[in-house]
From TrEMBL:
Coiled coil: none annotated. It comes from Desulfotomaculum copahuensis. Keywords: ATP-binding, Cell membrane, Membrane, Nucleotide-binding, Translocase, Transport. GO terms for molecular function: ATP binding; ATP hydrolysis activity. GO terms for biological process: daunorubicin transport; doxorubicin transport. Residues 8-238 form the ABC transporter domain. It is a peripheral membrane protein. One of its GO terms (cellular component) is plasma membrane. Gene3D superfamilies: P-loop containing nucleotide triphosphate hydrolases (3.40.50.300). InterPro entries: AAA+_ATPase, ABC_transporter-like_ATP-bd, ABC_transporter-like_CS, DrrA, DrrA1/2-like_C, P-loop_NTPase. It is found in: Cell membrane. SMART domains: AAA. This is ABC transporter ATP-binding protein. Its main location: membrane.
Length: 328
């Protein structure tokens, strides 16, 4: 049974392109106000899923509800409930930032009185308030993406879809975009559904579905996913590493691995263990380094491949697909 607070409900959704199964029987729900991420390599089926949920692509089979509306039978109501920011920018470069917002407002019948306040508020939120009258073609990639986010929110959508919101942006701009995304949830109470193939980015999500070859292979919080991999790793250095190794084994019954002159311990909840370790043998320790399992480790464990390698291999396929999308 679905939770009343679930704003996205997906049941056994499929999408085929001729013989190719792009989305293969996926089911999941997203709670109101959640930041929910779809993480997977290029070609995994992320964009296909988001396009089906946004009513831009018809599912081959299955069902989904957005804000209580069926994506096949109630497309108009679904579209009013959602905002969209897609990989390819859709702003008009010859219009100013404000004109772009006004154009979108007309499409969505946003009340004129509401619009005046709303567009100023949104431009402020994405730090473009002083650029409203500038033409968009002179904006940087990051500024365009921010404007697209503001535009996607203009009609107060319940759900904002972001397809690879930071792809092609530099690390600093990426981290800025994330600040806006988190702010949004706070200020607008909007549910955010995004796709990404960046592991570090996925860490910002409340929950992540890992998708590979069109299927969800795991769905959990970032820390829950990482717990699947196993234990934390602690690296220790000491003047007398042999002695420290013996002491730790004696006191805690933990046998570490030695490599590169360091002692490595694998342990549950390493952050809780370090204070105990230091109070027992702290005098002998020179340095401590705690390494949590990463989402890379999770992807590797689940699929047998590193996501970076999977992405690299799919780069050409992605370029081809971008072209194809342009023609769609
Ligand atoms: N219009 C289409 N016609 C044929 N095949 C398609 C079409 N759109 C997507 N595909 C195929 O469906 C599969 C999933 O593609 P999708 O774009 O959903 O992946 P993705 O995870 O979003 O990757 P990316 O980050 O590269 O967009 C890929 O094999 C892709 O080639």
């Amino acid at each position: 049974m679905n939770n009343m607070e679930d704003i996205i409900i997906v049941e056994n959704l499929w999408r085929k392109f001729n013989q190719l199964v792009a989305v293969n029987d996926i089911s999941f729900t997203v709670g109101k106000g959640e930041i929910f991420g779809f993480l997977g390599p290029n070609g995994a089926g992320k964009s296909t899923t988001i396009q089906m949920l946004a009513t831009l692509l018809r599912p081959t089979a299955g069902r989904a509800l957005i804000n209580g509306h069926d994506i096949i039978r109630e497309q108009y109501a679904v579209r009013r409930s959602i905002g969209m920011v897609f990989q390819d920018p859709t702003l008009d470069g010859n219009l100013t930032a404000l004109e772009n917002l006004d154009f979108h407002a007309r499409l969505y019948d946003v009340d004129k009185k509401v619009l005046a306040g709303r567009r100023g508020e949104l431009l402020q939120m994405v730090e473009l308030a002083d650029r409203g009258r500038d033409r968009v073609k002179f904006f940087s990639g990051g500024m365009k993406r921010r404007l697209e986010i503001a535009r996607g929110l203009l009609h107060h959508p319940a759900v904002l879809f972001l397809d690879e919101p930071t792809v092609g942006l530099d690390p600093q701009t990426r981290s800025h975009i994330w600040t806006y995304i988190r702010d949004l949830r706070q200020k607008e109470g909007v549910t955010i559904f995004l796709t990404t193939h960046y592991m570090d980015e996925a860490e910002n999500c409340d929950r992540i579905a890992i998708i590979d070859h069109g299927q969800i292979v795991a769905l959990d919080t970032p820390s829950g996913l990482k717990q699947m991999v196993g234990r934390d790793v602690i690296n220790l250095t000491a003047k007398n590493i042999d002695q420290l190794t013996r002491d730790i084994e004696e006191r805690f019954g933990i046998r570490g691995n030695r490599f590169d002159g360091e002692l490595q311990l694998e342990i549950e909840q390493g952050d809780h263990f370090i204070p105990r370790l230091l109070s027992a043998v702290g005098d002998a320790v020179e340095s401590v380094n705690l390494h949590k399992p990463t989402l890379d480790d999770v992807f590797l464990k689940l699929t047998g491949r590193a996501i970076r390698a999977a992405n690299a291999g799919a780069a050409d396929a992605m370029r081809a697909m971008m072209k194809r999308r342009g023609r769609r």
